[in-house]
# Entry
Amino acid sequence: MQLTDRQQLILDIVKREGPITGEQIAERLNLTRATLRPDMAILTMSGMLEARPRVGYFHSGKKPGRVLAEKLHQVKVGEVKSVPVVVPEKCTVYDAVVTMFIEDVGTLFVVREGGFLEGIVSRKDLLKTTLGGQDIHKLPLGVIMTRMPNIIYAEPDESVWEAARKLINHEVDALPVVKASTQEDGTVAYEVIGRFSKTNITRLFVELGEGDY
Ligand code: ADP
# Structure
């Protein structure tokens, strides 16, 4: 982040004299508080300065890059996830293609009764199958899907940074967001409660850039 000369001056004053009030900073610079307001907003929003009521501004000691990194570790998958689009295992390849178009998603989660994760199907899985010349009106997704336990998933409490790293490391476009629970028979089942994709990250990125998040 590039600071203007005036923002740099303010930062230096606060580093030297903080905690210091807005009024005092304005005096040092021979400017009015109103003139400084946008600069103070940028410096506090970026996390470089912190403001305490009745105390004033002080220097946080954080570099702008560090502030962004902290944010990406703070925001949880559960806060930015989308609604999952799920289909049953017996769903045909043809119906899966139609569902992808209707729901406008690139990945479908295959679930059994109760919404528990069984498999995942991507655009390319479906394209590959249509090229294979099989009858897509009859072929069920169970035959072509990537199946548990080979599915990479995220949990709602995980940071968006961790989930984004999974997308990159495993070269996939989306992760099911799941809630794990132990069943009566002692096995662990994963209820699908959301979808986390590259779109969620791009949206967060835009919002962070606008200073909205
Ligand atoms: P596309 O095929 O549209 O490029 P992906 O890169 O997401 O989409 O999928 C690549 C392959 O990885 C597909 O065979 C798909 O079944 C599988 N896959 C997709 N998402 C996951 C995931 N979260 N965990 C494990 N495998 C996945």
